[in-house]
Design brief:
Oligomer: single chain
Number of strands: 5
Radius of gyration: 12 Å
Shape: globular
Strand content: 35-45%
Helix content: 25-40%
Order of helices and strands: EHEEHEE
Number of helices: 2
Structural class: alpha+beta
Length: 96
Amino acid sequence: MFEVILFYKYTTIEDPKKLVEDQLALCKKLALKGRVLIAEEGINGTLEGEKQNIDEYCMATASLFGFEDIHWKRSVGSGMTFPRLAVTLKKDIVSN
């Protein structure tokens, strides 16, 4: 069973470049696809994967300092919602 999550969290990220690397490695390990934007001001993402892998991603990310109360919006996925994975460093997590 596939699941899609949408999330964002405004929080100060001391080393956004390292978080990009860590999130990319985590998402690859869990075979997740979608996009995650990271900036000094926080994180914004939409990911899809097997439900147990999404659950593991949520637990790992929520264990990080500043992300403990992150809110996850969940919906049923198809396994083909996103063609690839992109975890990128941005100036802002939400475009104007």
